[in-house]
Amino acid sequence: MAIRKAVLVTFSVRSNMFDSDYERNKFYRGLYGWRQKIRKSYGEYEYYKDGLLDEMPFVKVDKSLFIISCSNMLRIKEYMDAWRRKVEYNIFEVLLTPEQARLLKKNDVMD
Description:
Distance between the termini: 16 Å
Strand order of the largest sheet: 4-5-1-6
Helix content: 10-25%
CATH class: Alpha Beta
């Protein structure tokens, strides 16, 4: 059975360090993306704005915990570092069984 490497990212926001709820939401939206509805007199439109994780395969384990391939670790690290005074994070290397690795999209290159 082949074991594949991936990384587990965990983070915690320091809510009191954000200038506003808007700024805190900006962090989450930049990471996870968001859905927006616009209502006009002639109809309703809904569209989705991508976040960083929409650009890579990931498995959301919990609210502030996700797994990505090692090849995407640098992009996540750069994003988290940009918020370093307001968000604490850790990155751990993990080993996945082939079944667990299949949860990451097939078009991703696993290290």
